[in-house]
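Structure (tokenized):
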């Protein structure tokens, strides 16, 4: 049995090499050795939310997704903003969770990294409050102009962003250690 603290990371972008995915890789690399960090990469494989299918026996992809959250000690969501909102794929995934209590009290870190991101970040915070995720102002972060702050190799090139991410990581981590 593993004594590592399990963190599930969800990127709101379905692009395989997105800035949000790179940020999650960066966060993963910064966490202490006591953490097992898994990045959920099947957001685009979840079926469209349909309340008629949200029964005691939902689609197998949804059961698997929910189980990953249930089995995680904490969750980090890192998302871009699309058209002043959350990406549809992330919103769809979160809609599959509304009828559950799997986020109730779950330690959660929320990052919105986009060109502007303000509206998307507001929506992410509102939805996660609705899901009763456990987060505060120290475990949520808005990174504006992200493409100019991260290299193609995933190196954070902006010093203020490095500091903000490290504060976010330290605050998130402190909830477990």
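Design, position by position:
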């Amino acid at each position: 049995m593993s004594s590592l603290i399990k963190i599930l990371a969800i990127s709101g972008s379905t692009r395989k090499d997105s800035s949000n995915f790179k940020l999650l890789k960066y966060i993963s690399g910064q966490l202490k050795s006591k953490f097992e960090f898994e990045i959920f990469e099947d957001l685009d494989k979840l079926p469209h939310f349909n309340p008629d299918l949200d029964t005691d026996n939902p689609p197998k992809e949804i059961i698997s997704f929910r189980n990953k959250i249930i089995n995680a000690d904490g969750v980090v969501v890192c998302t871009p903003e699309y058209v002043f909102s959350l990406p549809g794929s992330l919103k769809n995934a979160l809609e599959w969770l509304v009828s559950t209590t799997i986020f109730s009290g779950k330690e959660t870190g929320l990052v919105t990294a986009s060109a502007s991101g303000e509206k998307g970040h507001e929506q992410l915070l509102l939805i996660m409050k609705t899901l009763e995720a456990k987060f505060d102002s120290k475990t949520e972060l808005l990174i504006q102009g992200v493409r100019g702050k991260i290299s193609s190799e995933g190196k954070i090139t902006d010093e203020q962003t490095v500091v903000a991410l490290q504060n976010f990581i330290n605050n998130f981590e402190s909830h477990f250690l």
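Reviewer-requested clarification: Residues 159-174 form the longest helix (16 residues). Helices lie at 19-30, 60-71, 88-95, 118-130, 159-174.
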